[in-house]
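Bug: token stream looks shifted between consecutive jobs. Job 1:
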Amino acid sequence: MAIVTKEKLDRVYDAYKDGKLSRRHFLKYLSLAGASIGLVGLPFGNAVKDAWAAKSIRFDGWGGSVSEAFRENAFKPFTKATGIEVIEGEFGDMNSYLTRVKASFPPGGEFNIAHLSAVYDYARYAELGFASVLDETKIPNLKNVMPAMIKPLRDITNGTLSAVPYDLGQTGIAYNTKHISKEKAEKLGVSLLWDKSLKGKLGSWSGDFRTNMWYAALHTGQSPNNMTDLEAIWAALSEQRDLLKKYWASGAELMSLLANEEIYATVAWSGRVAALQQEGHPIGYLAPKGTYSWMEYLYVMKGTNMEIAQQLLNFMLEPAAAIAVAEGQNYPPSLDPTKVELTEKIKKMPAFDPTGKLDGYLFAVPAYWNAHQVEWTEKWDRTMAGS
């Protein structure tokens, strides 16, 4: 059997990457190489894995326009600059993705970096043992990130970071300005979502108990992070269910329902509202006091090649890359607008804060929401079903 070396593996990989070798033949070669050098107990035991890992890193995101923004404005330029391939995966929701990560072997396994949303998921991954520790000296562009976005992550992982904040969003309220005046929307605030005159023209998101309970809390005069009357919460959500046209399941469906005027008002992701506004649709955005705010961050799984991960994170935080991605996905970047000059397009986005301090932005308290996740998810599913 021919001797397999790391250099030979690199040459074969380069041939595959240049299109001179098919994926089928490349994988076949890796299999034969693994058999020739042994996968367990020998000095070359991780050669195949190391040869692959040294040239690539996996990134999982939300798919659709968000992933396209990452691909065109960050991943392709990064690969061109470094020769390191970013292997893309995608997920539909946080719970299903976490299930896949937990099922991998070893836990985390093939997964490296994920575009996760909301601080409570950062806490969940840390509690499950997936937290890495970033060497911040290797990510100098972190200095341009809003401190108000970094602090909540540090508080969870005892002063260290397992992720870098990347963009800012809100789940506010979208409304059709042809059918609902700005004056009415601002007067009703959150209660617009319970307006009986809009019966059959309201919507909400099926996929998240937090969002729905959050706005029911505000509607009933409670703090979303400390609800004291749960009976009132569930009663309000049952009442709202009878007023809805539909619970939407994805950002694409949300935009379709609003664009086609099937619904006139709904909870909505600020980035999708921005996209509709840019397309010329008569959609207003309401962010009443207590609006559900969240950040998205690039989470690095324990066991990932940290040198490559940190190189990619720093590249993605370069103002040129971060601004281009932000414009592509319609969410303001984590860059502090008092340190980095942002574009007019970003300044017009819902959820943008020109001060960079995020005063008045209300985020979910991880310990509170995570402690009740199973119970409230089950109750929410029953409420949606009308049982």
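Job 2, same session, no restart:
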Amino acid sequence: MPNDTPTQQQPSGLPAALGAYTIWGFLPLYIMLVSSVPPFEFVGWRILWTLPFCLLIVAFRRQFGELKRVFASPKTMLALLASASLIAVNWLIYTWAIMQNQVYAASLGYYLNPLLNVLLGTLLLGERLSKLQWLAVAIAAGAVAMLASGALTTLWISLSLAFSFGLYGIVRKQVDVGSLPGLTIETIFLLPAAAGITLWYGAGSGGSTFGSELELSVLMVLSGVFTAVPLLLFAVAARRMPYSTLGFIQYLAPTIVFLLGLFVFGQQLRSIQLGSFLLIWTAIAIFVADLLWRSRKTKLSNA
């Protein structure tokens, strides 16, 4: 994203990157703590509590000028409206998947996402893939085909997560706005829908979950923190380290989610799922090897 490019002679962005992806990786543990909240209502409260937290950080970082600049650009606002819709869909599907114990499907979606980003960049942005990258994409397609043949009922979760976040990244890549100001404006766009959802649940026979229990209400307020903080860490990391290196670290999050499903949630790993993960891990290994080779080649040519 435009305002998150690496700069020279700055502190390492590695701690921030590890912090962001570790939080995202362990997010299912938090979601399970609020699993008694309907997914739609939870996402509504997540949006409502993310906005004030984002505004606090924007104020601390003195970025209101950037917000004003974006509000003055109808084209940028339209793009952020599209990205807001995509990220809302992503949040809803991910929350629903975790609450329905579809942890492996959620993990696979974010393993697929980087490979899908490469393919989307080729189809939508005119970028070119190397032969190794095409091989990685082909192997990933084989993993999807395997799931389609034996785990079709959960495949939509993985593909929906990968496509919604992949398209979100494509849209945000075209917008000249930083991660945090962008998220702030996105939550402003989503605010009416979020308010409507929470009011609808509050007016229902069961009433809103928020306010029913102190501990649960506090956890729902914290959704704003768990949304904004890792994104802020990601923005810091993206400014301080090469994007290819950051792309490698992003596999930490779905790996943590996968391990949570296996060792914490005790979910059975079906053979068809294991085969699909093995293909995805192979594709990722090829993809990362190609990135490292290209990075090393670039350094040698610039030496």
